[in-house]
Amino acid sequence: MAGQRERGRTKRREDERAARKLVREREKLALALPGGAAEHPIAVTSAAVVETMARANACVQCGGTLDLRGDRAQSSGRGVLRAMELVCRICHAPRTLWYLIVGSAPS
Question: Where are the domains of the chain?
Answer without folding.
Answer: 8-101
